[in-house]
Structures are given as C-alpha cells and as structure tokens.
Amino acid sequence: MCGIIGYIGTKKAKPILINGLLRLEYRGYDSAGIATVEKDGIKVIKEKGRIANLDAMDGINDLEGTIGIGHTRWATHGKPSAINSHPHYDNEKLFAVVHNGIIENYHDLRKFLEDNGYTFLSDTDTEVIPNLINFYYKKENDFLKAVKLACDELKGSFALEILCKYYPDNMIVVRQDSPLVIGRGLDENYISSDIPAILSFTKDFYFLNDREFAVLSRDNIDFYDNELNKIDKVVKSIEWNTASAEKDGYDDFMLKEIYEQPNAIRETIGSKLSESKISFNDFEIKKEFLETINRIYIVACGTAMNAGLATKATFENFCKIPTEVDIASEFRYRNPLIDEHTLCIYISQSGETADTIAALKLAKSKGAKTIAVANVIGSSITREADYCIYTHAGPEIAVASTKAYTSQVVLLNILALYFAEVLDRIPSSTIDSMKKELLELPKKAEITLGNVAEVKNFANIVYKETDMFFLGRGVDYYVASEGSLKLKEISYIHSESYAAGELKHGPIALIENDVTVIGIITNPNLVEKTISNIQEVITRGAKTLVITNQKINESQFFKVINIPDTEPCLSPVLSIIPLQLLAYYISKEKGLDVDKPRNLAKSVTVE
C-alpha cells in the first residue's frame, strides 16, 4: 500500500513529483523517494520519514531531468528505511523502478537472480523487478520486451513505473491488480496511483486493465496488451474540480468532507429520482432478470461494509429477496452459495480495494451478476463488474471515510427502491414517501451539522477516555459500528459497538463508573427497548450520550443530541454525522493527525 507518481514532459520533474507525492500522503507511508533521468543516467534520491525529509536531501534541488518517477512506501517486505525505500535500481543502474503491490514469489525470483550473479541491497520484494528486467534486457536488447518478460515471471499484484538509462525519452508503466492512472497533457503526461494527485494538471485520463502496458513519451502514449499487440484506449474526462481535492480553508480534509456531505448526498441522488420513476443513467436492469434473483450479497470492507449492513434490511423489506452482507476478505474463503440466480453488490470508495475486487472475480466465475458501487470513475472494480453505479461524492482525501459512507447509504437505498419498483413489490405510496424523504436528506444533513457546538463540548469532556462503547438496535446498531470505527481510526481510543439487546449477554461486564456509552435511537418501534438497555449502563455509572430523532425524556441521560426525523432506513445518513464530528474533535483535542492516522492507508490495494 503506497502511492506512485510519474511525469514526462518539458518541465523539471522534481517539483512535480514532490507535489504529487504530497497529494498522495493520505494513502499512508513511512518513506519516500524519486528518480529522474539526468544527462549522466538515472539519479535516485530517497529517505525514510516524511516527504519533507526527502525534499531536504542533499542534491535533490540539483535534479534537472524532465522525466521522473516517485513513490511513497508503506512497508510490507523489509522495515521502513532509506535503503528499502523506492525507487530501486538494478545492479548496473540501467533501470529504476517504483512498485505498488506485493510480489508473492519474490523469494524464488531472488534466488534465481542470485544464482545468475545478481546482488541485492534491500530486503524488499521490489528489488527483484529491476534486476529481472536487466536479466531479460541482456537477452532481448529491447526495453518493452524486457519489461514484459519480467512481468510474466511476477506472481502477485503490481503497478510499475520503469525508467531505462538507454531510453532517456521514454517511461513504461504496467499494472496487475493494483491501481494506476495515466493523465494526458499537452506535450507532457502524468502517472499516478490516484486521480487527485494529478487533477491540477489534467482532467483527461487513461485507465489500464490488468497486464496492459503503456510506453510514454512527452507527446505520445502507446498502449499494448500482454502479448505486446498495440491496442487503442479511450480517454475519459473526470469532472472533479481542483478545489475539491484541496482543504479550501478547512483545517483538515476530514472536517471539510464532513461538511461536504449535504452536497455529496445531493449529487449522489442527482437525476435518479423523478416523479415518474427511479432511473440510473449507468445501467438498466430488466424485470425479467430481477425476478430470477433469489439471493443478494453485499460485499465490502471497513466503512463500505458498514454502509452495506445499514442497507441490508432495505433490500429485504423492499425487494423481498434474502440479503447477506459479507466481509470481502472472508467472502472467498467460506465457499459462498453463488449461481446464476445470485446478485452480488460490491462497494468500494476507491474502486481499488484488493479484497473486494478478488471477491467480485469469484462471484463472476460462478455465474453471478455483479454491481459495483464506487466513487472513482474508471476504477478497477467498475471495469470488472457487469454494472457500475457511482456515488458522485467527489474526491475523499482523509483516510477516515465520511462523505463516501453517507453517499453509499443513500445510493444503496435508491438501488433497493429501484429494484422494488421494477419488481412491483411495494406500494406506490411507499415509493413516493421514500422519494420525498430522499430529496429532503441534503437539507436535513445541513441541519444536523448545526449540532457541531454540542458535539465539540462533549468531545472536550471525554477525549481522555481509554474505552468507549456504542449501542443501538436494528439499523442503529450498524451506525454504532461505524461510529465506533471512526473513533478507533483517528483518536486511537479503544471502542466497541454492540446490539443493545446483547449487553446482558456479556458486554455489560465491561461497564464501570464514568465509562462513556453512546446510544443511537432512531426507530420509533425500538425506543423503549433501547432506552431500557441504556438505563442498564446508567445504573452502573456510565456517562451516556444519546443521538436521537425521537421525543424522549432527555433528563435521564448525560447528553442528548437531536437530529431531524426521516424514514428509519435513511436515518444512518443523519445519525452518523454527530459521531463523525465526535471522532474528529476528540482526535483534535488529543493533538493527533486527523487526516493521516497511524498505520492506516486510504486505499487498501493489497490483500
């Protein structure tokens, strides 16, 4: 898990590479490096720690090259160190490589190369790649053929940028199960792991499929398949504006993205709702096909999985189809029951989550139809799936997901409503009521954000806590799970979420005087039962915060934050906002890096 950046043009590469790496910081990293093509060969400069450390290295400002590659590393093989950082040379310094991914057979490749006289400086899997290219270059005397033959030997995932001393006007890139985008400019081209890193330079992008190669020069890009046959690629224009990838006056990206949620919800709803029917510009599913579906799987990781859990009941209640939610990393290994009557929905903000993509491929191999829900246009998951729909939330830079979650919950509710409408399985009055509530959600999200002062005050009281607990029933339990995850991610406070009715089956043993317990109450049918469960922790000395849209006796709780009422299945969109703000302000009180929490990466592109 890391970030890669590349530039080939007429400007000095160094400042562009450093700028791009800074824009990739949110992916997480422990070291960084760049390589440029200079008059006397390829120059590599790399360092452990922050990009600022790299930018202060001796000689870095002397780089004049207009072709270069850069990398932020998140250690997987070999400890964080300058020597293990990328780029990596081959033994003769003819090639320089940056790599995102994991080479699973690198031990075997390393032994093969050592047997052929190659030596290694680092402990990384990546260093075998430039040496393997060197090995084949000596046989073929052709840059592209050498790269292709080397890639044939690699097992695992990789996105590669490769420079060659003998081809000073070219760069080769290739990918396999790891993200890579190419940005087209005027007499210059860009490469990156993510669109936001190069969005300020271009809005025209190419997306490589697995085992496709691109040979870049300043004014041209040639594409090849795995047999090195030339292929054509269609450029895609991305409509995100540059400001959407900037902090725009906010202290942190996370806070900005929390406040962007009303608009993200509005954009996600887009033109999908009208008085006559629900429609998706991205695809149309026929009634005849939906009638054959007897099982739905929603598969995702982390926050995206919590969005799936929050909408599971909507699919079952509206569509009358049994629905399961699975962790993507577990889905493949439990031999799920999948056939041509199965519909699988895969959720990934980045569209590059390795476990989710692998789970999607499994379902397709068993005959299931697949739908991808993603935020990034052209991402891997959207190209693999039979259908794709986009959240249109705009770039999400902070590691902790906020606006992507609420947009996913909205979109999945619309999708369930669409299926129900096509199948004619719920009354038209229910559909009309849901449409009305969906269209009012952006305004209600704005109202919910007005609670910031109350949330901030509570954060000031509890930020020194070491443990917190989140409770809810029904869909509120899944909101509790997402709230707990947010707190863990950015404040490093241990927290757990429980279905409120499960308290007496074990978790209540953890409750002691002054521990913080947060309850979510939005379903009118579950108010009394949930309050009864919260009373159990109050009698044991817990300090309670309740998030609710119901009329309750507030005096029995330490703090109550009221949110607007809506349909129960849409309540997660509103009830999560105070919990996002709580995690944010607790983290700020603790003086932590909100956007880049320790040990985490924005896009988990390895399994």
| Range of helix content | 25-40%
Number of strands: 25
How would a textbook summarize the main sheet? 8 strands, antiparallel
Strand arrangement in the largest pleated sheet? 3-2-4-1-10-9-11-15
Task: Write down the domain tally.
Answer: 3
Shape: globular
Q: Supply the CATH superfamily name of the largest domain.
A: Aminohydrolase, N-terminal nucleophile (Ntn) domain
Q: What class do helices, strands and sheet pairing give? A: alpha/beta
Give the end-to-end Cα distance, rounded to a whole number of Å. Answer: 10 Å
Low-confidence stretches: none
Indicate the CATH architecture of the largest domain: 4-Layer Sandwich
Can you tell me the CATH class of the largest domain? Alpha Beta
Assign the CATH topology of the largest domain.
Glutamine Phosphoribosylpyrophosphate, subunit 1, domain 1
Q: What is the mean predicted local confidence, pLDDT? A: 92
Beta-strand proportion? 15-25%
C-alpha Rg (nearest Å):
25 Å
What is the count of DSSP helices, taking H or I runs of 4+ residues?
A: 18
